[in-house]
């Protein structure tokens, strides 16, 4: 069975990679899709985020990396996929995730959202936290893979938050 794991991934963290690995225990094929979250202004371009993720999952033949600018449901219909994966870290994620899952269900009755729990080691971790700490010169190497650490270092620090 196929599934889509959508997100901003700005940048991808070990928490996201944990969700990818968990999803692959359940689903045969996974599309990691960078999408536009109108509530967020990304620091990395879609191309940069795609490259970073591809470098990390490139060895997995059943993982595809893609970018989509419109509605998630339109992407699912185009690909003929009916399952959306989302990671849940803590109770604070729940309201936002519930709203998205219900809205998506209204827009496309055939889809199901499957929530996977993030490993407790990453239950506090978010891309925003990584951006903030990196912007102020902190070490983020325990939260993101080396290629992401390097990409963050190359960013102008005052433009990162
Ligand atoms: O990693 P994020 O920012 O929490 O991911 C949110 C994302 C990008 C999956 C969400 O904003 C989204 O689905 N964007 C695409 C537009 C869309 O379909 N919006 C309706 C969802 S309620």
Structure description:
- The protein is α/β, with parallel strands linked by helices and about 160 residues long.
- It is globular, with a radius of gyration of 15 Å.
- The chain has a single domain, classed as 3-Layer(aba) Sandwich (Rossmann fold).
- About 40% of the residues lie in helices and about 20% in strands.
- The strands form 2 sheets. It has a 3-stranded parallel beta sheet, with helices on both faces. Strands 4-5 form a two-stranded parallel ribbon.
- Bound molecules: 4'-phosphopantetheine.
Give a quick set of tags describing it.
globular, alpha/beta, two-stranded parallel ribbon, 161 residues, 3-stranded parallel sheet, 6 helices, binds 4'-phosphopantetheine, Rossmann fold
Quickly describe the structure:
The protein is 42% helix and 19% strand. It is of the alpha/beta class. It has a single domain (2-123), classed as HUPs (Rossmann fold).
Topology (SSEs and partners):
Layout: E1 2-7, H1 14-26, E2 29-35, H2 46-57, E3 63-68, H3 72-79, E4 83-88, H4 91-107, E5 112-117, H5 127-135, H6 146-154
Parallel strand pairs: 1-2, 2-3, 4-5
The structure holds 4'-phosphopantetheine (PNS).
**Structural class computed from helices and strand pairing:** alpha/beta
Major sheet summary line:
3 strands, parallel
* Ligand catalogue: 4'-phosphopantetheine
pLDDT < 50 stretches: none
User: H/E series, N to C?
Assistant: EHEHEHEHEHH
Please write the CATH class name.
Alpha Beta
Would you report the number of β strands? 5
Mean pLDDT: 95
């Amino acid at each position: 069975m196929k599934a889509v794991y959508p997100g901003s991934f700005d940048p991808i963290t070990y928490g996201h990679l944990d969700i990818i690995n968990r999803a692959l225990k359940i689903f045969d094929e996974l599309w990691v899709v960078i999408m536009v979250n109108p509530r967020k202004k990304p620091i990395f371009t879609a191309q940069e985020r795609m490259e970073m993720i591809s470098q990390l999952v490139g060895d997995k033949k059943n993982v595809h990396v893609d970018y989509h600018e419109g509605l998630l449901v339109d992407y699912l219909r185009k690909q003929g996929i009916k399952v959306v994966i989302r990671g849940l870290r803590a109770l604070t994620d729940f309201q936002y995730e519930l709203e998205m899952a219900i809205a998506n269900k209204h827009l496309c009755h055939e889809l199901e959202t499957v929530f996977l729990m993030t490993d407790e080691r990453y239950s506090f971790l978010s891309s925003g936290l990584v951006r903030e700490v990196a912007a102020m010169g902190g070490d983020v190497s325990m939260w993101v893979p080396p290629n992401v650490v390097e990409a963050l270092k190359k960013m102008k620090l005052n433009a990162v938050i």
